[in-house]
Design goal:
Number of domains of chain A: 3
Helix content of chain A: 25-40%
Oligomer: homodimer
Distance between the termini of chain A: 72 Å
Number of strands of chain A: 25
């Protein structure tokens, strides 16, 4: 164990910390002239970098705006984000401490005698939490939280070894195992560092503090680059849990050091020198060239993170073989592998993608991290293309399969996000802590980073992707200052008023996202109707914009009854209900007394099509629109019926009942109760 | 490692082989007078014992007849059984040898230098194969097979240790681990011995040879009873894979030694001294009192074998708490846990029962061994009750979920028996060998023992359970000789002619099983119609029977369209097709060119109900009735359609196609091709 005081950036650059040469970190100014003209004083570029920093990425059509440029006001996400920063992030800090995750660092510094705690990927819990803090601080300083996080970062970097190596598990007796092929496969050393770099970048972009960022650079430049990579003089790398790829490329975007990008490319290519059994290449989603993949398979989070890294690589290199593979994989995602909630990963066994159309509801895995990975991947594809189909997936995952992962009070988390649930099986679906606690801080970093997903800029204007009460204060890519205010009750109401205020009158295109689910959307500009709104596309409003211009949009939010492709066996003869971006579900406790959830059907026989009654309940589950619809229930509970019987023998569907649907994200926030998204339907 | 020559029974009884007292084995004559008057010369009682020997079991309402009492002639099972004994049993012997299973014994005798081969339960492969031989020989001597098996048995008993312990895995360095709690949990020592005893009993009942039987007794009396059991002076037992329970009780039925029954009772009760984590009691289906169980759960084969043992225990003791628990568990089986094929075990993960109604088709486990366990359990419940509902489950499992486990040529086996299959997933569903080769010899012993399942006797007469061309040559329980001949083309045709020939005119009840699936069954006796045939019951024909009496029965075999309870999500909106005892399926390669299996629906719109065309194809799959029905297929393949879409958007079901159904048991005997049992249905 190495005791080592923190090196400041200056000290570090001036010292050779290992036998291997450590290159000086290129300063941001190496990037050359910026197109930015407005905000951002010289030397404070870190403040201008978004969730991703794509301004210099040659193949990014859209560019991120910084998180601080958007203030989300009271509303749907405002409430969620307040809970996140007031409850979730602080309580997770305490849980990480209580479960020895912080202590793992202290013990290496000789400040604790406690044993190592947690699985091999425990360091990443701390780093992901740090990333959540970083994003939270980008939305405004919180001195106490910052001080605590600064202290944690100090403890982390204090135990980095002179070589740059940093890990609290592969120490002592286990130090000899570092980067052995099997440890690369299962040991998560690079996964941990990937999360450290992501956390460091977010913290740097919040505070300008490079302490953790420099530690990440030291690992990469000091330990990794000199010793690992292609070529006979270096050892091979296997990315047993992809994550380092996207981290290295974001590091490249931050440092400008092309070796970081090239290392990511090398890892995405796979090094034949590390051999896996055939299933290993499937499960780990690494080890063979990413560009040869045609199917999402194996561990879902691994696959999603690998896709993120590969898209990042395309954004920097424009490599068409990557774009082709990414298109094929995305086609597989949306045609055969994604839940209607935007969740992915059908199988509990291996936390994995299943076969095409294998989308069981009750046994669905749909890990929160995998849905987040799906959102992150689509965010990168959206940047590469400007195609609204990716924004549709982002919104679907965000509002449903991700949002379900955190309880409304911000202290309980789903690891699995199934689309059907029967508590009689004994499962506790929400828990405050998991020994593998990847999902909770992942959810926290996602909600904290959310302002960064609302808008993008492009050469010709501004894209709006998400809708909620909010203020944008940023500028166009030509430097023209621009404010945009959204006033809305989205997602409960489709009406949104958007006030566009450029610093001076300017011609540009305002790309207004028309969600794929919307119907009969009406758009007006300064009171005059605008045609051309097409679901699943951006409506391009190009004109000379001036202060006080107002766009009024009303997205059609008629509740929609959705069926799945008949190849999805588990959804056959069943329907899901969606209103706006929200997928709905039935919870037993909202249904009439005596009606068993698994006995009901949605009854479309009466009116020939659906007829939902919408009711806003402000005191229910934080305030939600409840959907009511006529259902049918047999005279006898299905639980009492025969398992097999002649077809049609019990065809009569006795009495009518009123079904009460709630948004899926809000499930399991009251007593344990049966739940389902896909409900049997009786046809007209 | 102990080298030891075989002990003859006489030598063994005369020697104290361990510090513990080994009791002399009570001779069969201790059982007192037999009710048997006819067959069987004195001293040859072993010839009169069936699959189970229940003649002395106080709570058995029905009693087994010996396997040799029924000769199955040419027909459905005749062909299967010929393949079994001519192909499967000999080829499995070679495979067991080639994979080191026999050699594991030889090496302990110093006759081989090869290493131990196979998992901890490898000895059971040999024993289960021996049991298959035992049953095969009960249907007629095969000198060559017998000589080979005698030799194998010699090699087995040669390495039994003086203590009675016998196992080829826990030897040498591993000998110190014997019967440690964790080894009891995972090591299968008693599972192996259970199969040894079952094999020994079958071989004894075939040949009168006690060599292996005495080895089993030596293990129990010499090693187990003195050292393990209740009481502070003995170590506790945990039955990590139930099997020993039913073996001990069959041993008790063979030896009359009540300690064998009591030991089984003790194991079924569970010993609190061995603690498992909570899930352990679920997975292993042991360790807590069997009588506290209310739900089939955990590893399916373990659960089924435990239920067999518990039913055996009830048959001997009449313990009502057992009967009550067994009834609850059986209710769970047929109401919520059994596939329409009679297979059980929904989950691949843990080879386990799922939640109630969790019966996925494509990912179904349905292990061949579990279906066999289901049949064995129901065979015991049938003996306890005489209730035809158990015979219905036996027939369903036998003709479908068991029969599917062996290829038609007798050399390829299914471990899993899913009800839907897509070979594009890469699975090879039938294989000649599995390193865990439990299923193949289990299937072989089942088919070899089949004659023993056709009839039972009761105080008041004879029960016929199964139908096929066959001859019974046995006697009533009062000793009256009785021959029964069946002439039929069952299961392809419901007409069966049954000639009843008592040695002398006698009054008794002939219980004719009317299968639960039958409709409009007609029964005549000597040409005169008999009323009262009720599906799912035995038709009791009590009269003075005389030579030449003829029962003609015609079971209605109209192909039936079956739906599942709507709580079975995976079957919702879908139907299965059954004709007689056979469940049918669709294989892609039987459907019209260009029609994708997963695009078709069974179309019941035209005629309001099903209208199958039946065709016997004598050269297809060994001769089967093919069912043809109109189906519908959309203009566009589902594979090209959107994953989610507005309900009803693609409602039109384009063109008609002719669907060709084959019996499920015959699937996967040609090229790899998609298959499904549950097909979407279009309603009238």
């Amino acid at each position: 164990m190495t005791k080592k005081t923190k090196l400041t950036r200056r000290e570090f650059v001036g010292r050779a910390v290992s036998a291997a040469a450590v290159s000086a970190v290129p300063a941001r100014s190496l990037f050359g002239a910026s197109w930015r003209g407005g905000a951002g004083s010289p030397g404070a570029d870190w403040k201008e970098e978004g969730v991703l920093f794509l301004d210099k990425s040659p193949y990014a059509k859209l560019h991120n705006i910084p998180v601080h440029a958007v203030t989300i006001a009271a509303g749907f996400w405002g409430a969620r984000r307040e809970t996140n920063v007031e409850k979730s992030i602080p309580s997770m800090e305490k849980l990480l401490e209580a479960n020895g995750r912080m202590n793992n660092f202290l013990r290496l510094a000789g400040k604790s005698d406690a044993a190592q705690h947690g699985p091999v990927y425990s360091d990443s819990d701390v780093y992901k939490w740090t990333e959540a803090v970083g994003f939270a601080l980008q939305s405004g300083d919180r001195p106490e939280l910052r001080a605590e996080t600064d202290a944690i970062i100090k403890e982390v970097v204090a135990v980095q070894e002179p070589s740059g190596y940093l890990n609290t598990y592969y120490v002592g007796d286990k130090a000899k195992d570092r980067m052995l092929p099997d440890v690369q496969r299962w040991g998560h050393e690079l996964y941990n560092i990937g999360h450290m770099i992501q956390g460091a970048v977010a913290y740097y972009r919040a505070t300008g503090d490079r302490t953790l960022l420099d530690a990440g650079i030291r690992f990469v430049d000091g330990f990794l680059l000199p010793n690992f990579g292609p070529g006979a003089d270096k050892k091979p790398i296997l990315s047993g849990h992809p994550e380092i790829e996207m981290a290295l490329i974001e590091l490249y975007r931050t440092t400008g050091d092309k070796r970081h990008l090239d290392l990511a490319g090398y890892i995405l290519q796979g090094d034949e020198r590390i051999k896996l059994p055939p299933h290993g290449y499937v499960y780990h989603f690494c080890g063979i060239p990413f560009t040869t993949r045609t199917h999402l398979e194996g561990h879902a989070v691994r696959a999603m993170y690998a896709c993120c890294g590969a898209t990042d690589y395309y954004l920097e290199t424009g490599d068409q073989t990557y774009l082709k593979a990414l298109n094929v994989l995305w086609g597989d995602l949306v045609a055969a592998q994604m839940y209607v909630t935007g969740g992915v990963g059908a199988r509990s066994s291996g936390e994995a993608f299943g076969d095409s159309y294998e989308l069981p509801n009750f046994t669905a895995y749909g890990e929160s991290c995998a849905a987040i990975g799906n959102m992150m991947w689509n965010w990168r594809l959206l940047a590469a293309s400007g195609d609204a189909k990716y924004a549709d997936v982002i919104e679907r995952a965000l509002y449903n399969g991700i949002n379900s992962g955190m309880s409304l009070d911000g202290t309980m988390y789903c690891y699995r996000n199934p689309l059907g649930f029967d508590p009689s099986g004994g499962d506790q679906i929400r828990n405050p802590w998991y020994d593998t606690t990847c999902c909770p801080p992942n959810l926290e970093r996602t909600f904290a980073s959310l302002p960064g997903y609302f808008y993008s800029t492009s050469k010709d204007g501004l894209y709006v992707h998400l809708y909620d009460n909010s203020q944008l204060d940023w500028h166009l890519e030509d430097g023209t200052g621009l404010k945009v205010a959204q006033k809305t009750n989205y997602p409960w109401d489709g009406a949104t008023e958007i006030t566009v205020t450029p610093a001076k009158p300017a011609e540009f295109t305002f790309y207004l996202r028309v969600p794929g689910w919307s119907d009969g959307t009406q758009v007006s500009l300064n009171g005059k109707a605008v045609s051309g709104a097409t679901p699943g596309q951006y409506l391009a409003l190009r004109r000379q914009w001036a202060a006080g211009d107002v766009i009024r949009v009303k997205f059609g939010m008629t509740p929609e009854v959705i069926e799945a492709n008949p190849r999805v066996v588990d959804d056959y003869g069943r329907v899901a209900v969606q209103r706006g971006p929200l997928v709905y579900c039935l919870e037993q406790l909202d249904q009439p007394d005596g009606v068993q959830l698994f006995d009901v059907s949605l009854d479309l026989r009466q009116k020939g099509s659906s007829a939902f009654h919408e009711e806003f309940h402000k005191d229910l589950l934080g305030g939600i629109v409840v959907l009511k619809h006529t259902g049918a229930v047999g005279e006898k509970s299905n639980s009492l019926g025969a398992l097999y019987r002649p077809y049609g023998a019990e065809a009569s569907k006795g009495r009518q009942v009123e079904l009460n649907f709630i948004p899926y994200y809000a499930w399991a926030n009251r007593a344990g109760t049966p739940m389902q998204v896909w409900t049997p339907v009786l046809k007209a």
